[in-house]
Amino acid sequence: MSEVSDVRISPTLHPGLAGVVEDYDDDTRPLLGAAETAVDEAFKALQSIHDAKAGAAKNPTLNEYAQLVAVDTHATKVMSKVYGSWARTVDVLNSNIASMEKELNALWRGDLDEKFPSIRMRTDRRGFQVVPALIDAGKRYSQV
Q: Is the pTM of this model over 0.70?
């Protein structure tokens, strides 16, 4: 990961920031490591674009518009790789989130079924999972 600070790029994209996020440790690194790598690649790509702009400005054979075209060509090439990496990372994160939600729902659902075997989950019209009211109002459950 890049340890050098670059004032030309927003500090929010500095790859070292992941290490200072609360609860980001060796347990969460496998889940979020791809995001850290994607941010690092984006940071390096932006550095490369800034360097290309400075290099084009020093080229006496390029006028202002030719410099712009040269930098744009470089930026398009570099950022297309970053966009692909970013999209794959988002897909992996979404997959991890869906998997964790499924596991947590299964654990929670199993716990609810053990405590209240006569209650079944139902989805309301908004798509939320709800526990319906007890049908037998006279029945009292002491387990809560």
A: no
36: left (phi over 0), alpha (psi -120 to 50) or beta: alpha
Helices (H), the chain: 29-58, 64-115
Q: Which of helix, strand or coil describes residue 122?
A: strand
Q: What is the CA radius of gyration of the chain?
A: 26
Domain boundaries, the chain: 11-117
Buried-exposed string 63-96: b where 16+ CB fall within 10 A, e elsewhere? eeeebeebbeebbeebbeebeebbeebeebeeee
Mean pLDDT, 10 residues at a time, over the chain (144 residues)? 70 75 79 84 94 95 95 96 93 88 75 59 54 43 43
